[in-house]
Amino acid sequence: MLIRGASGRRAFLTGGLALASSLAFRPAQADDFLADATLRILIPNSAGSGQDIAARLFAKHLQARLPLTRISVENHTKANGRVAALMVWQADPDGLTLGFLNSNLLYAEILEAEELPFSMTDFAWLGSLSLDRRVMVVGNHTGVTDVATLMARQAPLLQAADAANSSHYQAGILVNALIGAWIRPVTGYNSSARALALIRGEVDCLLGTWDNMTPVLEAEAGRVLLRLNDCDLPPGFGQVPWLGALELRPGGQAVLDLIDGQSQIGRAVATTPGTPVDRLELLRALFLDVASDATFVEEATANGLLVRPSAGASLAALLTRLLADKPAAAAAFQAALTCGQLRADTGQAC
């Protein structure tokens, strides 16, 4: 689509908002490299997904600030979003290619399951629009009403997933490993098909971001059973237990930290490594100007999106911390995946 027109988690989430005001965007600043240029925004997810909605809404409000710039919004979904990340990586370092990069790249890099030619720490990060609210939703037809009935169930809960390397597939496997649940991911369901499958009763549960659960909850076909990260849910959903407050299996804390870290990455936006510092700082100021704009927040909220912006420097620091000891993280993560997959396939405890 081509648009034309006129210290800790709290510190991470709020860091950079003072910067936004001190670097408040002025249109004249963009005359040098954005005027009469095409700015590409790449989305690694399909149309209608939460990431797609967030990216297109961001592009709309960015366009209003850049009347002399052509903004091209493109979906590139191949390889579970890896292609979009590679396109950003390989683009000219001129600041004219932005990508909403999937947070599942963190897991891929830790596991080194794929030969990625980049590290997440190498991208030039503009910031993140929000943290992810990751939850588990179960269908009403299952009879699972709380964690106790989940743990007592003697048959697997079928989970809709698109591919075995997707973050929501891995989430089900990790929940198995961390608390001994019995979730069996079933692949072949894209973003929109997953919700429909649960509404129809073809599968029993979904794990993923809050905004992708909206169709199920609006249809009153399921309930939120578990929060996978320590996040606030919208009013009216009561006290949903957090995974980290449950009794975890040995070694579970390291894996829980990775789940929480991935959630903090959220809807992160990057440009190509090597982008000149002055261009990067302008793009960062533009990003925070959009993300902190009251009209943008209002429209995002109306679309079921959470907006909790963080600055590019804060996001880069988070990724550096999460990837500081990849061998240790990989060992804990792989052990949990092996255990959780055994549970999914056979029902056996590890």
Concise overview:
With 350 residues, the protein is an alpha/beta fold. The protein is built from 14 helices and twelve strands.
Can you lay out the helices and strands and say which pair or pack?
Elements: E1 2-3, H1 9-14, H2 17-22, E2 38-43, H3 50-65, E3 70-75, H4 82-90, E4 97-101, H5 105-111, E5 124-128, E6 134-139, H6 147-152, E7 157-160, H7 167-179, E8 183-186, H8 191-200, E9 205-209, H9 214-218, E10 222-227, H10 252-265, E11 268-271, H11 277-291, H12 294-302, E12 310-311, H13 312-322, H14 326-346
Parallel strand pairs: 2-3, 2-4, 7-8
Antiparallel strand pairs: 1-3, 4-11, 5-11, 5-12, 6-9, 6-10
Helix pairs in contact: 3-11, 7-10, 7-14, 10-13, 10-14
What can you see in these coordinates?
There is one protein chain. The protein is α/β, with parallel strands linked by helices. 42% of the residues lie in helices and 16% in strands. It has 14 helices and 12 strands. The chain has helices at residues 9-14, 17-22, 50-65, 82-90, 105-111, 147-152, 167-179, 191-200, 214-218, 252-265, 277-291, 294-302, 312-322, 326-346, and strands at 2-3, 38-43, 70-75, 97-101, 124-128, 134-139, 157-160, 183-186, 205-209, 222-227, 268-271, 310-311. Strands 1-3-2-4-11-5-12 form a 7-stranded mixed β-sheet, with helices on both faces. Strand 7, helix 7 (167-179) and strand 8 (183-186) form a beta-alpha-beta unit. Helix 7 (167-179) packs across helix 14 (326-346) and helix 10 (252-265) packs antiparallel against helix 13 (312-322). The longest helix has 21 residues, at 326-346. It is globular. Residues 1-24 have low confidence and may be disordered.
